[in-house]
Specification:
The complex is a heterodimer.
Chain A (H helix, E strand, L loop, with lengths): L3 E12 L2 E12 L3 E5 L6 H8 L7 E6 L2 E2 L7 H6 L1 E4 L11 H11 L5 H14 L15 H13 L5 E5 L7 H16 L4 E4 L3 H7 L2 E6 L2 E7 H6 L4 H10 L3
Chain B lengths: L7 H40 L4 H16 L2 H20 L8 H27 L3 H9 L4 H31 L11 H12 L2 H33 L1
Helix pairs in contact in B: 1-2, 1-4, 1-6, 1-7, 2-4, 3-4, 4-6, 5-6, 6-8, 7-8
The chains are: A alpha/beta, B mainly alpha.
């Protein structure tokens, strides 16, 4: 039996009177990759940001590694330090070099020494093929390179899970693959991953399950082959027919 | 045309003007700038806080300071600071603070309101995703502010902060109301003693102009260099 790493229990969220998440329940098991897809505005980014408490939610519960995210006694900073997150717009710190970007939280949050952190950072930069750019600043790198640095920054914390919020949506087409390659490799090594993306090729290749959202609801939550083979809901069928046309 | 004037008085009083007067002015400017930026940044963080009492207190302070004429504030603080100081240390009577430290405290408090608004704009100019990225790594509020947001905000706002400092440099001349001997005060004393008002005040104006103009030019160069980097 797989044990769950992230579990959503009937999570609801409102912006004022507008409900963005409607009783969402799903789970990501240890070592599994779950892809969340759906039309824009369906609430998928909001859902993933609830996992590490970047977005508060009003009802339901999210359990990460046996800790409840929204609960009063939860040390949110400590929990976040164990979950890597990669953003659509990279969000590297532009005033720091690549190495400093990777070192910052290792030193300040995990209490590693600067040497220890740098050793770790260099190993990770090598892994994403960017050790030659260690001293550069984010502004000197291409989008694809920046996103790979962002993944390395997340991995530097030795996370128990990684969250990806549309990691390739802001990239030029020719740079998407270099980022997906790193993510595929990570998935094959057994990293627990929750990925919001429109890259259906990636989903087919590595995802264990696909979650389809529309209008703040989880409409379909199925094993990958099942989702692509015979989506049960009309909305998922429509969505797939639209994005798989080309 | 200049037969009735004696410009030698300037040369004769140069040591006094610069060693006493300008030193006072520059020291006051630098101390008030440092204190004002530190206090102003804290005020900006409070103003942007989601905790209502913080933003209310900081907002009221800033609006109050910005609605009062500086001369009035200098005057009030000169009389109030000894009492407040005495009250803080628990002395039975007002403590002697002196014109210099009174001026430093006044300008720090006053300029903080202006630096606050600059830093507030600076913090707001940083994309929200940067805060999220800091938090997602497990950094707490102070770490995210100190390592991620403020260094970028400070850098973006450097030209404006320096421009405000040039204004501060000129404003320090208002300490004449508490008879402090800044650059203008020193010149005024000589002007009155030797009855050389035109010569001294012309010279003072020229010095303020040269320094402020040079600093402004420097800020402009800094601005264009930063534009290239970005």
């Amino acid at each position: 039996m797989n044990s769950s790493m992230i579990e959503f229990r009937a999570v609801s969220k409102w912006y004022g009177s507008f409900q963005v998440l409607k009783r969402c329940s799903t789970r990501v098991d240890k070592g599994q990759v779950v892809v969340v897809c759906g039309p824009s505005g369906s609430g998928k980014s909001t859902l993933i940001k609830c996992v590490n408490g970047l977005e508060p939610f009003q009802e339901g519960e999210i359990i990460v590694n046996a800790e409840s995210v929204g609960a009063k006694g939860t040390n949110l900073s400590r929990l976040r330090s164990k979950i890597g997150m990669v953003f659509q717009h990279f969000e590297l710190f532009p005033h720091m070099s690549v190495t400093e970007n990777l070192n910052l939280a290792q030193v300040k949050v995990l209490g590693r020494s600067r040497e220890e952190a740098t050793t770790k950072s260099m190993a990770l930069l090598k892994r994403v093929g960017l050790e030659a750019h260690a001293k550069k600043y984010p502004g000197e790198l291409s989008g694809g390179q920046q996103q790979r640095v962002a993944i390395a920054r997340g991995l530097a914390m030795d996370p128990i899970a990684m969250l990806f919020d549309e990691p390739t949506s802001a990239l030029d087409p020719e740079m998407i693959n270099e980022v997906l390659d790193v993510m595929v490799e990570l998935a094959q090594e057994g990293m627990t991953m929750m990925v919001v993306t429109h890259e259906m090729g990636f989903a087919r290749k590595v995802a264990h399950r696909v979650v389809f959202m529309d209008n703040g609801e989880i409409v379909e939550d199925a094993a990958t082959e099942e989702f692509f083979g015979s989506p049960r809901s009309d909305r998922a069928q429509l969505f797939l027919s639209k994005i798989l046309q080309h | 045309m200049f037969s009735g004037y004696d410009f030698d008085v300037i040369q004769r009083s140069l040591p006094y003007l610069f060693r006493d007067g300008m030193t006072f002015t520059v020291t006051l400017t630098l101390l008030a700038m440092t204190g004002g930026i530190v206090f102003g940044t804290l005020l900006a963080m409070m103003r942007l806080s989601s905790f209502a009492p913080f933003s209310l207190v900081a907002g009221s302070y800033v609006n109050l300071m910005r609605s009062l004429p500086l001369v009035l504030v200098i005057f009030w603080f000169f009389f109030l600071v000894p009492y407040i100081g005495g009250w803080i240390v628990g002395a039975p009577r007002p403590i002697a603070v002196g014109a210099f430290w009174s001026a430093v405290i006044t300008f720090t408090m006053f300029e903080a309101a202006y630096y606050c608004e600059i830093m507030r704009a600076g913090i707001q100019s940083i994309p929200r995703g940067q805060v999220a990225a800091g938090q997602a790594l497990g950094l707490n509020y102070w770490q995210t502010m100190g390592h991620v947001i403020l260094p970028q905000a400070f850098r973006n706002m450097l030209p404006v902060l320096l421009t405000q400092t040039i204004i501060l440099f000129q404003d320090t001349s208002l300490v004449y109301v508490i008879s402090a001997t800044d650059f203008l005060g020193a010149a005024a004393k000589i002007a009155n003693r030797d009855y050389r008002l035109v010569e001294m005040y012309t010279f003072v104006a020229a010095v303020y102009f040269v320094i402020s103009f040079a600093l402004s030019a420097l800020v402009k160069r800094l601005q264009s260099r930063m534009a290239i980097v970005q």
